[in-house]
Amino acid sequence: MTSCIKPNAWVALKLPSGTTKVLQVTPNTTISLGKYGCFPSNLIIGRPYHVTFELQDRLPGENFSRLRVVPASELYEEVFAEEEATESSSAPAVTGGSNTTSACDTVITSTDGEEFSLVDEKGNVVVRSTREVLDDRARQTLTQAEIEELKKKGSNAGKDVIAKLLLSHTALNEKTSFSLAKYKLLKTKKYIRRFQVLPLDVANFATWQLEERDASKIMDLRAEMLGLVGCWANVHYGGEDVYLEDPKARTDQGEEALVPLEKDRLRGRWLVVDDTGGLLVAAMAERMGILYPLEEEEGESKPEATTSIPTEQTPTATSQQPPKDTDTEMTDAQILSSKPEKKPKQPKPRPSDFAIPYSQSNTLTVIHSASQPNLSFLTYWGFDATSPNHPPHPLLNHLLTLTWLQLLKPELDTSYSTPPLTATQETLNSWKPSRRGNFHRKRRRFARIRHIVDATRAGGFNGLVCASTMDPISILKHTLPLLAGGAPVAIYSPTIEPLAALADCFSVPRRTAWTSGSVPEVQGLSAAELERWEGNERFPLNPTLLQGVSIQTSRARRWQVLPSRTHPLMTERGGADGYVFTAWRAKPAEGRVEAKGRFKKRKVECAEGSKAEVAGTPASSA
Amino acid sequence: MAQTIQHEISPFLDPGPRTKANSLAILQLSRDNLLPVYLQPPTGEVDGYAEGAVVNTRYGSFPHSTMIDVPWGSQIRASKVDTGSRGRKRKREATTDVEGVSREGTAAGATNEQDNEASVTANNSGSATPASVAPTVKQAIADTSGFIHILPPTPEVWTSSLPHRTQVVYTPDYSYILHRIRARPGTVLIEAGAGSGSFTHAAVRAVYNGYPREGEKRRRGKVYSFEYHEERYHKMKQEIKDHGLTGLVQLTHRDVYKGGFLVDEGKSPEADAVFLDLPAPWEALPHLSRRKPRGFDVGEEGKKWVSPLNPKKSVYLCTFSPCIEQVQKTVSMMRRLGWVDIDMVEIANRKYHASRDRVGLHLNFDRGVNNSPKDVEEALKRLTEIEERTRQHAARAREGGDGDVEMESGDEGDVAVKLEDTAAEQPQESSSSSVAPWLEGRLITRGEPEIKTHTSYLVFAVLPREWTEEDEAAAAAMYPLGKEQKVIGAVDKQLRKQERREQLQQKSGGNSRKERRKQRDEKIGQECAPMAEES
């Protein structure tokens, strides 16, 4: 992603308390961190990510804090001191004086073995801990009012408060090294005025949404699951952009002028069913390189625009700049009005209404159940699916969305089945600009929807990724025929039950019964018909269409790594574990196929069993 | 097509719609039994087979000719192949096939260790010239039974089909690692310890955004891989070539502890992400610094320090170590070298198998069926039946008069036989009237019999870019202070109230809804404008 914090970028501010604040850094504003203080946004814009900033004490006459970059040596000084102490404890007669790495800070170090001591700035030991067991009663002698007072005039980024608190604790020298370290950490979290700026990429966004916002909105999709789903579905950059030629349809031409679908050019396409508000789409788009604008291209395109635009009258090259998707009523008027103002530049030939703005390769096709896709989280990456006049974004040319109705019964969908408006140039010229704009907008929308629906129904997708609240069996029923042979399927579910039911559709007994040729319903059907078989109660799906069915889950267990205090974290987030179903699309051979080997005998039995059962069905129903 | 394809795109990145000759394919023999094979065009008799190269498995024999130019994912029927006479003849002839380790050999030889039941006949004999062999290839005849599926290669299937050459980084680990170290199209990634190549393949897929072209300025995603073990280096080198990954992976034979990570004679790869699968990552870490670290013997004497990292971005790092002591040393070194956000995790992955738990008295005596009562009602019913019969029998015995001990015991056996009879009769009745056999029982999920409880500890860290006084001064000049208008972020009650009050005051000056909308539109315009400028 970006090398430094850009104006108006969405970022995640990590606070010492462990909480994350997600906001858009608007230039010329003040960012408030609550009790930790506030600072002008211009102090972090243009600065690098991941460095730790410290809010400095307010200068006289300023009502905000200036920032200081905390070097890593200072961040870890306590750990270093501990490490040195443990090393030096084996070699005796080394006092705590040398332990302080920075002279101006009060540091807790351990001077001998596991014991801790509080060292002041000159290196004198102020307090020393013993190994006596500490009782839990609070023995902080400072009152709340005094602490508040300290905080107000508190200087040195909260470090003074922490030191005072520690010193005022009567039982400090009774604390064991571990409880002392814990106490210090607790107070540090509360009072130290530091923060870090993280880029809001998919990983950081997902963590924030999962742990601090509403995990149910993203279906408890953890980082491990995002990684697994993406890898098992083999989602990656799907090749260079390929655009269809502009048909140069005249305004009086209808459907017949549409660009014909070219199946051979459709490459690197993935199907997505997303009920996580767009997080899954964002994660997949990130893997395909279409979520963030390319930095290098940014740099290159700027000078290009200022110099000269190659005036190509006949855009025959297939991989050229995508036709601009200007979908506003006022485009005509704008162009007309802007003409006299600018230099007499050759205007870019505008694509005709039926030009397809979408790339034929490296695309995501989202099938959604509402009339509009819910991809609201994509706004964090500067993409708004509903915006009519969108600034350039890679997703514009690579994200295709359609409803289940458009996929399964396009003839019932008005926008698909209504033929486009037509008008001659003369009639058009007589219209008001707004009416003309509307006319063009409708024609463009028609061409786009036609293209999306026809391309999706043509199938040949390279994989299916799914995180949906809908029954996965019903999703697969309609999407399996659209997958190319060998294409992977990866379905996420927060709970295992829907996936188990799905895996059961491909169980060995069911598959055997199907291939043994004893299912009367499918006798005499061709391979193509079997692929699109609508299923029944006993066979919800054609069990031969998937191979290598497997369900798995993954969990990352986090550890604390500190000198002589390394162990797994005591608590972690619970809730839904999350499971992933994986398989590959198979192309079953035509006709009856028998397995070889020692299973043969059993299979015959099975087949007979199902025959008997089939024979019995009419009798029982009669 | 006007596309300019300089390289043959790797089958891992774009396998195309159908299988191709001289390309890698993965044969799926059974659920977890995968076999990598380089498909060979049928040129004549190979290794004694009239059909050309043949893969022999316990599921039948599969001539390559039956697997070329079929759609991926196809189910392939076994063929009738004469394996008997060939073997004997071959033994006598076998002389010169030691030379010429072909690609087939590497893939097939490795799999023999993994599954000794699946023996692969490889075309090791590069000496067999086509001229000496009759050019006619025998048409394969389909067998009556046996089949496999043919899958396109992906890092996942490749990883699961890998023999255990060294420690393999499996999918649960590498999928998480690549997600965390932000390996995306365009990323330049350093990998040290190429090992078995499982991570390399996954990493290439993640960073791939097109093959590099002559004279092109744009930096494309690439993996710089380092391997110390010579034999593994050569094996990997061959693999990269065979898999069409040349130009995307640059493999270097080097001890990175001593030699560092610079490539092409002292040039920086400018990496954005690093993955270290080394026994002592802390010895390699000093090389991954932005400035020459003090107190370490790194970089070349007297030469200017060149950092292998991208100077303009935060660099993400992951190390992969099985032992906790390694982790402690690594983390300690990371802290000293200025890495931040150090985070250690361990991945636990579990696979589940969905099946039917079939318990019940009325079920078939089939394998995996538990013929005990499925619930208390069924148990009660059976007990009542037994009780009833015993009572009837006792009554009959009493009617018979003389109660002989031997007779009684014999009768009891009779009862048992009768009961069994009814149990055997029942299944036929019920199965014909109720559900299909694959729908019987409760659907359950069960973990795999053996689980990997520990693979390795993953340590993640980030090294922010360097930030000097000059940089700060430049940034401060570009974004001057003093024009702050609004407060964003955590706004406390007081402040919010004050803002609201100000707003209301403004509004009281006769502001209508229209004007407010205008204001809002202006604001949106401001927000959108920079976005449009940027791109």
Automatic annotation (TrEMBL), chain A:
Entry's Gene Ontology cellular component terms? nucleus; tRNA (m1A) methyltransferase complex
Q: Which UniProt keywords apply?
A: Nucleus, tRNA processing
Where along the sequence do coiled-coil regions lie? Answer: none
Sequence segments annotated as region (Disordered): 83-102, 297-357
Entries under Pfam families matching the protein: Gcd10p
The listed locations are: Nucleus
The Polar residues compositionally biased stretches are 304-323
- Any GO BP: tRNA methylation
Major place of residence? nucleus
The record's annotation in PANTHER family points to: TRANSLATION INITIATION FACTOR EIF3-RELATED, TRNA (ADENINE(58)-N(1))-METHYLTRANSFERASE NON-CATALYTIC SUBUNIT TRM6
The record's similarity note reads: Belongs to the TRM6/GCD10 family.
The name under which this protein is listed is tRNA (adenine(58)-N(1))-methyltransferase non-catalytic subunit TRM6
Instruction: Give the organism, scientific name.
Output: Chaetomium thermophilum (strain DSM 1495 / CBS 144.50 / IMI 039719) (Thermochaetoides thermophila)
From TrEMBL, chain B:
Q: Which GO terms describe its cellular component?
A: nucleus; tRNA (m1A) methyltransferase complex
**Which Gene Ontology BP annotations are present?**
tRNA methylation
UniProt superkingdom? Eukaryota
Bias class Acidic residues marks the residues at 402-411
Pfam name, any one: GCD14
* Protein function: Catalytic subunit of tRNA (adenine-N(1)-)-methyltransferase, which catalyzes the formation of N(1)-methyladenine at position 58 (m1A58) in initiator methionyl-tRNA.
- How is this protein named in the record? tRNA (adenine(58)-N(1))-methyltransferase catalytic subunit TRM61
Q: Which organism is it from?
A: Chaetomium thermophilum (strain DSM 1495 / CBS 144.50 / IMI 039719)
